[in-house]
């Protein structure tokens, strides 16, 4: 069973990822970031995709999480720092899941 000590074992990964984001940050959105930002912006206007051109490249989960940042007009670095949190939680969750099955 995962102990409280193990729960914070991946905090160095979070710190490292935050450092990488801050050091190598670029204010240009590239790749999937652009599409997610467009969908999140659309959600703030009351729709997900254009009804005349319904191109759906991914589900609404991540754009829904981004909506508060879009509404606050947060700088793009905040989106990358949000990804750092998601990475930390994903690795922690994977570890906890594996600890149920592997000794």
Write a brief caption for the model:
The protein is an all-alpha fold and 103 residues long.
Kindly describe this structure.
With 103 residues, the protein is an all-alpha fold. The chain contains 5 helices and no strands. The chain has helices spanning 4-7, 11-23, 32-44, 61-71, 76-101. The mean pLDDT is 88.
Number of strands: 0
> What is the percent of helical residues?
55-70%
- Oligomerization state: single chain
Q: Specify the number of helices.
A: 5
Euclidean distance between termini CA atoms: 9 Å
**Rough outline:** globular
Strand content: under 5%
Mean pLDDT, all residues: 88
Q: Write the H/E string, N to C.
A: HHHHH
Q: Outline the biggest β-sheet.
A: none
Q: Which residues form runs of ≥5 with pLDDT under 50?
A: none
Rg over CA atoms: 17 Å
Which structural class should the secondary elements be placed in?
mainly alpha
Features:
single chain, mainly alpha
Task: Draw up the topology in text.
Elements: H1 4-7, H2 11-23, H3 32-44, H4 61-71, H5 76-101
Helix pairs in contact: 2-5, 3-4
